[in-house]
User: What shape does this take?
Amino acid sequence: MEPDRPVPRITPEARPYWDGAREGRLVIPRCRACGAAFMYPRVACPSCGSRDVGWIEASGRGRLHSFAIAHQILNRAFKAKPPVILAMVELEEGPRLLTNLVNAPADPAALRCDMPVRVVFQTLTAEVTLPVFEPAGGA
Amino acid sequence: MDARRLRALSGAACIVGVDESDEIGTLPGKSQLTLHVEAIHNALRDAGLSVRDVDGVFTAGQHSPATIAEAIGVVPRHVDGTTVGGCSFIILVGHAMLALHHGLCDVAVVSHGESGRSGVGVSPRRDTALPDQFETPYGFGGAPTYFSLITTRHMHEHGTTLEQWAQVAVSTRRWAALNPKAKLRDPITVEDVLASRPVVWPFNVLNICLVTDAGGAVVLTRPDRARDCAKRPVHVKGAGEAAEHVMITQMRDLTFSEATRRAGETAFAMAGVGPRDFDHVMLYDAFTSGPPIMLESLGFCRPGEGVHFFEEGRSTPGGTLPINTNGGGLSYTHSGMYGIFPIIEAVRQLRGECGERQVPGARLSLVNGMGGMLSAAGTLVLSSEP
Assistant: This one.
């Protein structure tokens, strides 16, 4: 099936992130020197500057740090029908991601910043699976 | 930060010429390089100088300073193409001051031209690899999809409301009504903003800047030479800049611009002034939530209180702190990288050239702009007095 949205062009530095997503795991970089997890993947830690960077599997839990509801999408390669919930999620491990909130009403009255969310995976192509998030319930 | 060293640069350059391109608005018959060239010629005429006098070329955006120099037919001794978003032109005024101070050039032109609406003579965007990988697959793309996240979080943390953001649009439109060059001049109400077309909640279309074709240029020289120019010089008393992030996920606090705070801190220290000293303010208004957050980040008020300047009428014609007196990116013009235009307006206000919208006795003006999503910042302190 034709993907309904632009397919990420994967850079070599981010390969483990996308390989993990394809297997249904959220794999993110973490500095072995200072312990800070971060996104996006880089060869040096943005917190302490160390070049000793490894990868961990994140819990997939986080909070909706902020959101917006797109009533129109400017990018013509994005064909999924609006409204779309544009989301910034802060992972339990610290890093923030841009993503979509799914399985939730596109209604600002039904959403609030800091609500708990958890990762789910959307297959886009044979190579690319997108991490998206859904409400996790609870406070 | 060594304030004594910064103070030594204060007033080292004057703005002696400003102008827009021949026309601004919707210009399908002009490539953006033409908008640069028109603006440069117009600003030099305003200064009483000619293209032959220019030996420093400063620009940002898709064209390099070499392209601009070639187009106007000069071989500059100094070029600078720092491009960190729409505030780049504000930052470049500071760079020009530094170059003039050290004798690297004698007459500097900071130039902008952008066919933001018609897309004539434009090149592909730069720096798209990371967004293409981590953002656009989710529907992000275009400034409203990002700045909305800043705005939602601000509402969550500070209780700001859609009505309060709308007041920024209403205030700015009142100024646009007084500016013959402004694109949108009919008065609007808070209700009009709330009822306008939804684009990306929390933004309706009246929360978002125009998209136009426009050029603008600013000419600078040292104070000694400025005396021979056509008009009374405007003195650059302070200049500051900073860059925090490009990807919005990397912004430390979505509700507060660290880049803006730092840019302001440098500019204020250089000029030896603080927020209370200004009688005119120009803030980059790509979105209604931008100016209040800039006021908060610059220290004009506490976090969450920036909207009070607009809802209490301080920012409007007749108010105690006039803000965005040209009608702003929201109602006057916004080509994409808006930063040259607030400088032009501040200079006109300090010269007393603004007719119906003139701020009486304007002597000290603040220009503050953002690049990207409050990602980078430039701040200028401009004065009618040496």
Observations:
- The interface with chain B takes residues 5-11, 14, 39-40, 46, 65-75, 77-78, 80, 82, 84, 86-88, 95-100, 108, 112-114, 124, 130, 132 of chain A (CB under 8 Å).
- The radius of gyration of chain A is 16 Å.
